[in-house]
Specification:
The protein is mainly β and 74 residues long. The chain has no helices and five strands. It starts with a strand and ends in a 6-residue tail after the last strand.
């Protein structure tokens, strides 16, 4: 599984340390490579206001991290 995380570096509001913003399950054989596309939309960087009726976003730097989780065999 390929996972896409975002970390807000200087947010003016309290945010989680890192947020999962997308994932894709793929199967890869030994010595095989695949290209995975996981678009990150601007709306994914917004947060809900206190009344939970609107979302809001402000320009601030963020870091994108990619994680790969291998399936475990049982």
């Amino acid at each position: 599984m390929v996972q896409l995380y975002v970390k807000h570096l200087r947010s003016k509001v309290e945010r989680p340390r890192e947020e999962l913003k997308g994932f894709q399950r793929i199967t890869v054989q030994p010595n095989e490579t695949k290209t995975v596309q996981n678009p990150l939309k601007a709306a994914a960087l917004a947060w809900w206001t206190k009344n939970y009726r609107d979302s809001e976003s402000r320009p601030s730097p963020f870091k994108v991290m990619i994680g790969i989780r291998r399936a475990t065999s049982s």
